[in-house]
Give the backbone structure.
Amino acid sequence: MKITILGARGSIPVEGKEYTEFGGATSCVMVEAGGTVIFLDAGTGIVNAPAVAGPVSVLITHPHIDHLIGLPFFRNLNLKDGRVDIYAIPRMGRGARDQVTAFISGPLWPCTPEDYPADIRFYDMETPVVIGDVKITSTESNHPGGSTVFRLEHEGRSLVYASDYEHSADTDESLIKFAASADLLFYDGQYTEAEYDSKKGYGHSVPGHGVKIMERSGAGMLRIVHHDPRHTDEMLKDMEDKISTDKISFARQGEVIWI
């Protein structure tokens, strides 16, 4: 499995010389396994994705705007012979189509998904499901309004994507079990320990807790994601230095990982 981090920023995209190392694009990870291409979330990072021949799938963890904002600019939507399958678990009475159309339609956007040249198909997701060569399972995250943690498996390799997750005694055991022996764990570490004291209930976690989840689940590697938009490269490197090993680091936009 080839995993490319296209965006690792949380909440809003940022730009400037102080954000060059970790990047400013919001959540999107591209997974290539055999002939299957899957995007996890469609933040502004998806704008960096190349146009891919053949059908591609986009798995939306939840419809908060930072995870959808790049979708209107996704190159594959403009391929006349392209096909894009969009999956999302229903939230607040809205299925996948309604979640996306709430954003990609007037007055927020000048067109609807039906106006794009590609064949766009929506699926109200139920897992487990197999997409091409990849088996996908999911568990519920701990995040306001709900969010999905995905596990992707291919030929004995696996990754778990736990962005927008707040640690809690009620949910940690479930996540640890879900991430058991994964080769790669993406974990939400938006806040410092000091910041978290005033951010409880916002739906995000801290890097050190990601290390605990990794160790208890037996995951092979850890990448911290959903970097706070106020955290500069200098701040993120300082946070990273406290936990980094050859298997643990903060996600960087453009990083490619093979498992």
Notes: The chain has a mean pLDDT of 97.
